[in-house]
Amino acid sequence: MATVQATAQATGARKVKPNEQKIPLARVLGRWAFMWPILALNLIVIVIPSIAGLGIAFTEWSGYGQPEFIGLANFDRLMQDAVFFKSLSNNIVWTAIFLTIPIFMGLLGAYLLAGIKRGQMIFRVLYFIPFVLASVVNAQVWRFLLHHRVGIGPWLAELGITDILDVALFGKAETALYTVAFVDIWHFWGFLVVIYLAAMSAVDVELYEVARLDGASRFQQFRYVTLPSIRPTIVFTLLMILIWSATVFDYVYILTSGKPAHASEVMGTYLYETAFFRFDAGYAGAIGVVMTLWVALAVGGFVFLRRRGWDV
Amino acid sequence: MGRLNIFGSGRSQSTLPNYIILILLALFAALPILLLVSNSLKSTSEIAASPFSVPREFLWSNYGEAFDKGNYAVTIRNSAILTISTIAGSLTVAGLAAYALSRLKLKGSNVLSFYFLVGIGVPAQLFIIPLFFMWKQLSLVNTHVGLIIIYTALQSPFATYLLRSYMLSIPEEFVDAAKIDGASDWQVFRHIIAPLTGPGFLTAGLVIGLFTWNEFLFAVTFLPEKEFKPVATSLYAFQGRFSRDWGLTNAGSVIMMAPVLILFLALQRRFIEGLTQGGLKA
Amino acid sequence: MKHLKLFLTVALLLFAITSVGAQDVTTVVWWTESGDEVDDFLIPLLADAFNAEHDDVQLEIIAQESLNDVNRTALQAGAAPDIIQTPGAAFIAEFVDAGQILPMTSLADQYGWKDKLLPWAYNSGVLAGELYSIPITYESMVLFYNKTLFADMGWAPPTSQAEIDAIAAEAIANDIFPFTYGNASWQPSNEHLMGIYLNNYAGVENVYLALTGQKPWTDTEFAEAADLLATQLVDGWFSGDLSNYYANTGDDIRYELASGEAAMMQSGTWNFGSIGQFFEEQGTEWDWAPLPPFHEQAGEYNYELATGSTISVNANTENPDAVGKVIDYWLSDPARVLAIAAGAGFGEYVVPIHFTVDDFPAGTDERVARFFADFAAVTGAGRAGYTTWTFWPADANVQLWTDIERVWSGELSTEDYLADHEALWEQARDEGKTLPIPAR
Q1: Is residue B34 part of a domain?
Q2: Measuring CA to CA, how many Å separate C430 from each of A195, C216, C423?
Q3: DSSP secondary structure string for all residues of chain A
Q4: Residue A244 pLDDT > 60, yes or no?
Q5: Does a structural domain hold residue B87?
Q6: In this structure, is residue B40 part of a structural domain?
Q7: Cα torsion at B147, B151, B152, B157 (round to 10°)?
Q8: Is C97 within 8 Å of chain A by CB?
């Protein structure tokens, strides 16, 4: 295996460029020119309005009239809000689920697909369709499939398998959040297959040949060739999942709206309820700030790892 | 090698287990979709009564009715404009930035990474009102251009990081060879990095396209005039205040999905060609 | 870049061309919530008809998806339309607070809207003596039942809690749910039931006293009303199990009623339009009856008053007079109102004006016409109840339908729930956030 690892690293790792001496100023400025378009767009569309928007969190505001500055009062309130902490912990559970199950399914699907000749295209399309469809439609399909009266459950119950799926999974406090997560995973994992497959396709085929010559098993090839080679892409998806898990909203909102009794509440739905029904835009802004902080922490960790020399 | 096949000729390693697992995964993904298509040919009350049966009679009229009611002729055109422009804009902007972040030693690129990614995580509710205010001052509300700029800004950080991860996988030797020949940064990007990142660009384009096609919140806010509305609003035409016509909704969502699927198939074909033509066999 | 410039130039030219020639005609813009009835009925029967009869004013109705989010943003930036539609009374209070709504009192006086609208509906738009909004739909709560099933079982629509109990016992013995309901499509559906139990158990007089601050919500009548509902839900009277209630969509409950899996449904008159197709599919018949009093203290049966969406005049409009013309055109023609309402299945655009039997379009369902006649008679006699989404201030209203789930799950006692509720009412009174309550 040693040869394989060495080869993988020789081609895969490209950390420090040798002999990079002083670069002329003109060239440095020229390099920055590659960044100007994205910086300008970001500044105008996201940064400036967000700074204006973040201010809302420090006000008492109905969302319509004049905001009134109240300092950190909204954050004090957050610290004592049991529903908020319930939402936050649900977001954490959600993140843990999404960092594992869909990643595993995505890697499995992509790796197996990369290994077949016939039918690769059709599988890829089938896996990807759920990601293409509108959330409101996907939600309805699963509502039927998991329905306590007409779904798979009653059908299984007729076969004698009871008390698993023949109950209202979306309506029970113990199962609601996990059931929504399941539907969202069904919709999401095919996307990871496509991303990973594209990354795997860029892996040097010779590495596999060397590995096979070394007598590597299929799993060893995956472990020592595929995984290290697509590591930047895996880290990228982990990071995206961390970010998206902070802002998750639509499947939860459509399927349970946080019911029953906040058992499946997440920060996104709680923010929406606060702003939309309670006319408490200032407090909603404070929840939004926590969501942004979460993202900042996740990204900060990522940048920290990179500083430590991780090539991610 | 017509297809990517990392398991070699298959003499020593059978692909049969692959197919078994892949088929199981395909059933998991596709059976609910089959249900959707079947239910797109029923009336709402038949769906409620027997969601899993074969349609009593195939209501093909759902499709025509959904197409008219959802105003798809207009919304598909609008979404096509938005989607194609956003893909082009984002890939250009993100491609340049990804190159700079992955290949050019920029001071402060860590800070930039941080800044962009945090930007992705800011909930839209926090900045949509100030943004709308600015767009109104700039007369960009109710214009496709205005929304395309927003979409490009929202999508390019994600695309940048996706492309960056692909660009990092390109062996250094390719670039070094060109540099020895005296190529400028731009030439290296244009002639070496960008072509070799083909699959990455296609994947990023697909993701951006899909986001744009399905995007709802910014679209309804920034395009309140009827003639500009995108395809994501069409599904709302089947929604009453207290009930939804699920037959039409299902048919409408199949209509909405079709162009994306076609785009996907087209891109994937190129993607495979790109693989076989790429310089990665070196 | 070249293409972008070209594109911008063309866009500017197009813009210039389309904005010429729009002189001397005032256009009134109204954004309404999107829905299938807008294109089919509201626009042809109201906007097109109005425009055909007027040269100086033109009405443009645009359906917006997720209207409230769009409105909020547009109002902030001063880009909202002339007519502002809200989902209900609580929203209007916020808009008025923010100075974004023009009082319509002088328009109302000029056109005599006070006589055209039902008195309680007119008063629901009055804040601090000024008219700020007009409801464009009203509704009430009734008891729907499966008429075929009732005939088979030899039941008559219940007129008291004792009769409900008798039907429920027999139904459960026959594997039939006494009631069906669910909140999967719309979580605030919890408040439909809470409102019904408050009005019909504690009685409308007691609710009125509590609404006007003369009686606390912690009193036993209200606690018993909440407990009655909680017990029934937990015991599975509604669709068999509380978890089913949480998982049931609007389609599910109409199906359960139509198929005879459930006997009755306590719900709103907005179901008139959509319930029929489920019964047709099942080959059964539906009917409705007034909700009976659940306790002697509630007196005779009543109808709850409820307004749905409202319309108001944007404070920034340049043409309040033109807006007045549009609104008056609508309010002045009962037959037109009912034709639009019928198109929307009497679930939307039932403007609360005075109707006579002749105003109903030919072929109106007898059951629907019967409701409007009885509603007018009963509420005219003062037996009117109060829906939570029309008469409760926002915070207390949201607490009412969110925290009740914690009562049902056993996390919160009824006493604590009502104490929290009372506290939010006191807070609303202190802040002047209460909504107009029509005098009895």
Answers
A1: no
A2: 56, 15, 11
A3: -HHHHHHHHHHH---S-TT--PPPHHHHHHHHTTTHHHHHHHIIIIIHHHHHHHGGGGEE--SSS--EE-TTHHHHHHHT-HHHHHHHHHHHHHHHHHHHHHHHHHHHHHHHHHT-STTHHHHHHHHHHHHHS-HHHHHHHHHHHT-TTTSHHHHHHHTT--SSSSS-GGG-TTTHHHHHHHHHHHHHHHHHHHHHHHHHTTS-HHHHHHHHHTT--HHHHIIIIIHHHTHHHHHHHHHHHHHHHHH--HHHHHHTTT-STTTT--HHHHHHHHHHTS--HHHHHHHHHHHHHHHHHHHHHHHHHHHTT---
A4: yes
A5: yes
A6: no
A7: 160
A8: yes
Give the 3-state secondary structure of residue C31.
Answer: strand
Taking the CB of residue B192, how many other CB atoms lie within 10 A of it? 19
**CB count, 10 Å around CB of C252?**
24
Report yes or no: C76 at the A interface, CB cutoff 8 Å: yes
C230 CB neighbours in chain A (<8 A) are none
> Where residue B128 sits, what CATH number does that domain have?
1.10.3720.10
Compute the distance between CA of residue B165 and CA of residue B151 in angstroms, rounded to an integer. 22
Residue C347's pLDDT is 84
What's the residue count for chain B? 282
Question: Each residue of A163-177: pLDDT tens digit?
Answer: 788 899 999 999 999
Task: Look at B129 and C77 and tell me if their CB atoms are within 8 Å.
Answer: yes
Task: Tell whether the torsion through CA atoms of A147, A150, A156 and A158 is positive or negative.
Answer: positive
Task: Please give the C-alpha separations between residue C334 and each of C58, C59, C328, C349, in angstroms, as whole numbers.
Answer: 21, 19, 11, 12
Cβ burial B149-178 (10 Å sphere, 16+ → b, else e): bbbbbbbbbbbbbbbbbbbbbbbeebbeeb
Say what the ipTM of the complex is. 0.83
Find chain B residues with C-beta within 8 A of C63's C-beta: 226
Chain C residues lying within 8 Å of A167, measured CB to CB: 241, 243
Q: What share of chain B is helix, strand, coil (3-state, %, to 5)?
A: 75, 0, 25
Q: Which chain B residues have a beta carbon less than 8 Å from that of A115? A: 5-7, 15, 18
pLDDT, mean over chain B: 84
Listed range (A118-132, C299-313, C365-379) with the worst mean pLDDT: A118-132
Look at residue C262 in the predicted model and tell me its pLDDT. 98
Q: Is the pLDDT of residue C6 over 70?
A: no
For chain C, domains (ranges, CATH) are: 24-137+308-360 (3.40.190.10), 139-305+384-430 (3.40.190.10)
Q: Tell me whether residues B237 and C271 touch, CB distance under 8 A.
A: no
Q: Which residues pair with B196 in a beta bridge?
A: none
In the predicted model, is pLDDT for residue B274 greater than 70?
Answer: no
Enumerate domains of chain A plus CATH numbers: 76-307 (1.10.3720.10)
Q: Amino acid identity of B174?
A: F
Question: DSSP string of A47-76?
Answer: IHHHHHHHGGGGEE--SSS--EE-TTHHHH
Pairs of CB atoms within 8 A across A/B: 311
Q: Is B119 on the interface with A (CB under 8 A)?
A: yes
**pLDDT of the residue at A9:** 39
User: Structural domain tally of chain B?
Assistant: 1
In a domain, B200, yes or no: yes
* B266 touching chain A per CB within 8 A: no
User: What confidence tens digit (pLDDT) does each residue in C274-296 have?
Assistant: 899 899 989 999 999 999 999 99
- Give C344 to chain B, closest Cα distance, Å: 8
- Could you tell me the two tokens for B182? 């005296």
Question: Looking at the predicted structure, is the pLDDT value of residue C331 above 60?
Answer: yes
| Inter-chain residue contact B129 with A34, CB threshold 8 Å | no
Q: Domain of B90? A: 62-281
pLDDT category at A11 given cuts 50, 70, 90 is: very low
Alpha-carbon gap, residue A283 to A76, rounded angstroms: 10
Contact indicator for A252, A264 with CB cutoff of 8 Å: yes
